[in-house]
Amino acid sequence: AENEHQAGLAERYLGDVFALWGDSWRALAQYQRALPLFRKVGANNVVAATLIRIGKTHGQLGDVVQAEAFFDQARAMALKWGDLDPLQRLANESGDLYLRTNRPREA
């Protein structure tokens, strides 16, 4: 289980590097590789954080529907587990998405 968690973190960190370099497609691929590893070991807080990263990346790629879908998954998971940390990040990321897509009332 620890190996899967560490492998998931490595994949996600690579995604973060690609995101910093502006390569959203490669970042998305890395995040999508990390997600099942975190789910397998039951790392719920890390799953929620990864879902937010995937949603943010979809938003940067212009796919608002997918972005919102991943944000909704993260929100549901955070509420289920009572984890406020992802909810705070989610509020920031979804607000940013709505501002970038000219939907300020939703932000």
Question: If you had to describe this structure to a student in words, what would you say it looks like?
Answer:
- This protein has 107 residues and is mainly α.
- The protein has five helices and no strands.
- The protein has helices at 2-20, 24-41, 44-60, 64-81, 84-100.
- Helix 1 (2-20) packs antiparallel against helix 2 (24-41) and helix 2 (24-41) runs antiparallel to helix 3.
- The termini are far apart.
- The mean pLDDT is 92.
Which labels suit this protein?
107 residues; mainly alpha; 5 helices; globular
The whole-number mean of residue pLDDT values reads 92
Measured distance between first and last alpha carbons: 38 Å
What proportion of the residues is helical, as a percent range?
over 70%
Estimate the strand proportion.
Answer: under 5%
Q: Order of SSEs, N→C? A: HHHHH
Shape, principal axes of CA atoms: globular
| Structure annotation, total helices | 5
Instruction: Report Rg.
Output: 13 Å
Sheet/helix structural class: mainly alpha
Report the major sheet: none
Oligomer: single chain
Tell me how many strands there are.
0
- Low-pLDDT parts are none
Can you summarize this structure?
With 107 residues, the chain is mainly α.
Topology, pairings included?
Elements: H1 2-20, H2 24-41, H3 44-60, H4 64-81, H5 84-100
